[in-house]
Amino acid sequence: MTSKRIAILGAGHIGQALARGFLAAGRSDREHLMATVPSPDKAKELGEELGIPVITSNPDAATQADVVIFSVKPQVLPVVLREVAHTMTREKLAVSVAAGIHIGFIEEILDGEVPVVRLMPNVAVVAQQGATGMALGRYADEEHVTYVKELFSSVGLVMEVEEDLMDAVTGLSGTGPMYIFQLIEGLADAGVKVGLSRDQAYALAVQTTLGSAIMARDYGRHPGHLKDLVTSPAGTAIAALHLMERSGFRAILMDAVEEATRRSGELGRLHMKKA
């Protein structure tokens, strides 16, 4: 359990996922975690649901916190940073999960040598199975790094990268759950097409995806080797693989990650320039 007070500014999809993940993992108790949303009605509803204080004032939340997680959209981040800048001191830690927005830009608005860590988690943190890229600001020291790694490791994998690779992290793992959900839905639809019930097809698609991912993580073998284990001579898998290769399956994935990476950089440039 951590005694640091955490404020999540912007409890949207990823903000709520982080709150639920931290609570489920035991990395924060309800007395040391709070969040903000714009609407009083939503604040009341979410506060009752999560059992934590949820308020509408970002400055009030930031004032009370030791760690301030900026979990708002890139276009909103400059406004929120300016809104709370007067509350941020070098004794606090600013954590941004906004796609595309550079650390230097955040440091400039906050001023005062505030330590900043930029993260890109994905929504699977809600199930303690997230993947998070991490880059460090000028004033973040080893204590900050250790704390952030411990906090976010409680909800999945944390990988430190150079900041110029954060858009790539966004394109691959930040956006990644969408690719996997599309894959699961497509497999389930295919199962229905060949005669399975919807429930049967969905359960088999989910378990097949989960089991394959665990094998890829735990077996220490290249995915090409694991693929070869399934593709026996003249069998069903090699026939399906031929069709997938002819249709450009891997190229589609590469194009999708590349496009999401490009868009992340574009969002950052656009909203930093506007600010």
If you had to describe this structure to a student in words, what would you say it looks like?
The protein has helices spanning 13-25, 40-50, 58-64, 77-84, 103-110, 142-153, 166-174, 176-193, 198-218, 223-230, 236-246, 249-274; strands at 6-9, 33-36, 54-55, 67-70, 93-96, 116-120, 130-136, 156-160. The longest helix is centred in the last third of the chain and has 26 residues, at 249-274. It has 275 residues and is α/β, with parallel strands linked by helices. Helix 7 packs across helix 12 and helix 8 packs across helix 9 (198-218). The model has no long low-confidence stretch (mean pLDDT 96). It folds into 2 domains: 6-164, 3-Layer(aba) Sandwich (Rossmann fold), CATH 3.40.50; 176-262, ProC C-terminal domain-like (ProC C-terminal domain-like fold, Orthogonal Bundle). The chain has an 8-stranded mixed β-sheet with strand order 3-2-1-4-5-6-7-8, sandwiched between helices. The protein is built from 12 helices and 8 strands.
What is the number of strand segments? 8
Approximate shape = elongated
Cα(first) to Cα(last) distance is 38 Å
The sequence of SSEs as H and E is EHEHEHEHEHEEHEHHHHHH
Strand order of the largest sheet: 3-2-1-4-5-6-7-8
Please work out how many helical segments DSSP would assign.
12
Relative strand content: 5-15%
Helix content: 55-70%
CATH hierarchy: architecture of the largest domain: 3-Layer(aba) Sandwich
CATH class call of the largest domain: Alpha Beta
CATH homologous superfamily (4th level) name of the largest domain: NAD(P)-binding Rossmann-like Domain
Rounded to the nearest angstrom, the radius of gyration is 21 Å
Uncertain spans, ≥5 residues at pLDDT below 50? none
Mean pLDDT: 96
